[in-house]
Amino acid sequence: MFNRLKNVLIDFIQQADLLLLALCVGSTLFGMVLIASATHYMGTTKYVVVQGAALLIGVVAYILLSVIDVEVVARKWKWLLLFNIGFICMLVPFGVSRNGNRAWIQFPWMPTAIQPSEIVKITFIILLAYQLEWIWQEKRELKSFHSVFPPAFHLLFMVGLIYVVSGDMGSALVYVFIFLCMAVAAGMAWRWFLVGFAGGAAGIFGIYKIGKMPSYMMDRFHAIFDHTYQPLGAGWQQTRSLLAIGSGRWFGQGLFHGTQTQSATASSLPYRHTDFIFAVAGEEIGFVGCIVIIVLLIAIIFRCLQVARRARSPFSSYVCVGMAGMLIFQTIENIGMCLFVMPVIGLTLPFFSYGGSSIVTLYAAMGIVSGIKKRAIPDRLKVLR
Fold this sequence. Notes:
The chain is mainly alpha-helical.
């Protein structure tokens, strides 16, 4: 047993993507410093400890999934699909509500809640990549309705399931963006994107007209276009975020010294260790610190796309693109939310925000990318393909 574990570690060190791991760990440690500062006013180290434990579990997941060949896992697609549906449906009997969404599972013996939609992102990407490669193997292009319908139905089914069961529109939108990125990589005809956008817009307008859109959701979108709309209501969180970021200027007010970050009053920055961790960075380490965060995330995303370009198969390439798409959307949405240019939909900043299931999921996703990089075809052999 010991020798087998030793061989796995040696194989990991020699072939895995250590640069990607270093970028991820560096980002998480940076985030833990921000979380420590954001929760300092509470007088507890609970959040830092939980994040640290999630980091350790995440690194183990990264190592294990670097060793596993995801193409072999994808062949068990029926079990993966059953897992996706079953895990999301567990929210019906065991889910707990937070901020209006029944998106978490929390048992008394668990130190932190689990968000099924976070974990299912990985298996969704694997399943969608398997679908897209199957279409490619059948020598069909994603131009006809017959070819486009199966992956599109897969997306609509998962988005509908997540929204109906949990009401979590933010997570559902991540799945949509992942699909768009992977569909572009697979060469889907642009007219189908136009059809999808038109259908989505018509659906949203229809829900709005019949009065089925939640009022809080309409208010959040309204506040984006009119910052004077409900400054103490729908726009309050982002107003506080802008104030925090603006007050930090170039180099910030200093860690553990931010005016809002260290305030315990109810009128201060909300959700500062989760959704608005970027605002904490803006206030305490300033514009320069925020740029460092963005550069780290761009480097991780670029690494995923670099591995996608060198992947040994279309399936592996699609998986890497899907992982990158997940990071791109969450990064843009979270930072945009903090800057009051995107609506608040409850998405955390990858690797930086507090969240056990989110951190473990991200490291598992990057572990899969590392495994694909490990099995990539060398450039000197690509001419022989």
